[in-house]
Amino acid sequence: MSLSLTNSFVKIPATKALSAFGNSIISKRNISRTVPNHFFFGKKPEKFEVKRVEIPNATWKKGTPQKIPSGKIISYEPKDIFNMIKFTKGTLLSATTLVSTVSADGVANTAPFAFCNCICPNPPIISITVHKKPDGSLKDTQVNIDATKEFGVSIVSDWFLESAISTNANLPPEEDEFEKIGITKMPSSVIKAPLPAQSAVSFECKVVSSTTFTDENGNETSVVYNGQVVKIHANEEFYNNKTGEFDYEKFNLIARVDGHYSKINNIINVDFVK
Ligand SMILES: Cc1cc2nc3c(=O)[nH]c(=O)nc-3n(C[C@H](O)[C@H](O)[C@H](O)COP(=O)(O)O)c2cc1C
Questions:
Q1: Residues 159 and 214 in one domain
Q2: Which residues form the Flavin reductase like domain (predicted)?
């Protein structure tokens, strides 16, 4: 079954827009901009309903090319893209996850990650990419993974979006982000790092390989860690392992879209492809 993203974006003056997790993202932008409409203070989020929708082009026949957008295609060298991180987030839509780690001294850490995906189902491998901080120093997540070779990945749903994203705070390594931000710890079974109890689904991973990337000057920019999934925790309210089905009406998944977020609130019926 395939998912599509809600298109609940509206144009509003930035001065009136405040995100639900403070103004850290929205206040950086000027005057008129596009934000998801559920991020306005004062506006109650509408009741979350997942719509089962029909395929968008029901009359399509195999062998017939579908719509090609009429706009002119402009080709860029990657270096000429205005902001490559922003561009990839806007096009290759990603989940919003919390990555948990623990330091060599046993201090728990968690941070939001969008560069995170399952890159192989067998064996199950989840990959996360940790970028260096703008000043070139290492994030606690990277220091901790290098020390322990382990990390946890937890899916973010809308009932704890604000606290999940607030773990983005740049706290010193000796401070426990779970405790400081208010994420409840749930013990892992195999790895040492705790997991957020708020999450409907968490994966415990052990690093099997990593790749370091450098920029054109040879400076290290990011490390991709591939972690083999060694344990999965799935709340039975959202996942039924007898049928393999997720209850998306309850799951309330959040995707990262450009600098914004989107609730996944409709599912396109693709039965016809069988
Ligand atoms: C939604 C969201 C997604 C993020 N995704 C990533 C990511 O994929 N990789 C990364 O290095 N930083 C990412 N960040 C930034 C880190 O969460 C941030 O640098 C954090 O402070 C790192 O914490 P740490 O020093 O405890 O590891 C993201 C931030 C947000 C809000």
A1: yes
A2: 89-248
